[in-house]
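Narrative summary of target 7.
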Amino acid sequence: MSFPRHRQRRFRRTERLRALVRETRLSREDLVLPLFVVEGRSVREPVTSMPGVHRHSVDQLLLECKRARDLGLSAVILFGVPAAKDARGSGADAPDGIVQRAVEALKRETPELVVITDVCLCEYTDHGHCGLVEGEEVLNDPSLQRLADTALSHARAGADIVAPSDMMDGRVAAIRTRLDESGFEQVAILSYAAKFASAYYGPFREAAESTPGFGDRRSYQMDAANRREALREMRLDLEEGADALMVKPALPYLDVLTDAARIFDVPLAAYHVSGEYAMIAAAAERGWIDGERAMDEALLAIKRAGADLILTYAAAEVAGRLPA
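Modeled conformation, tokenized:
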């Protein structure tokens, strides 16, 4: 039997050879660690549906962020869980709100970390939706004021980047205008531009206590079937003033991420969401898969598809395995 001259296995024989020709590499600088911050002191409460993930009070959050920094991570994104909720999400833009206090503490204690804040109302409203509601309708335009107020309060606290995740039409323009008019033109906007109405958000909703009290979010988050619409959403957000774009979830939408990397010349983020993380962690706990290899492979796929930043609950875990 005659073999061709080209044998693909020649560079697969050893790890040194494989590393020599590796096309995609994951680095610590690619990873952003999502963190949940709650009221109280000395709180480090496990999230049962996300093994290894906790909700932290501000004092414990500082310890977690120092550990992340020491592992070589450069950025975190904060989600606040207030003690009280109401219909308008009053805690979202409160000067002494949970996220605002957390940002101030982080910029004081770990100034080298980039602090991103999630801008949405779902964690703060008693109905669990991402905007204001009337009856059972989620209102678009009246919600923009609340979102802009929230982003401004985060900027005043010291956030480096605000990340609107609500999917109200026009929210990027409203936030950009409010920030610029208030003297925070240097604060960047990372838009959850292509955020799909996904089944993969369940564990997050436990952690953030943000399950909708009625209906679902399909009237404002994207239909999972729509690829071209995702690109229109991204284009519109750039026109409104977004500095970077996000695809969420990551793995089920790698095609959208690859399209975006080909078309848009801006930083691209992908959110490896709670359900994606939890499936790997749960299967690993049961001994069904090699958890470390599966997690690394998932994040590498997201990077290979075109992400510059990957938001993942495994960021600290994976950073400890990556070369310095």
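The longest helix spans residues 141-157.
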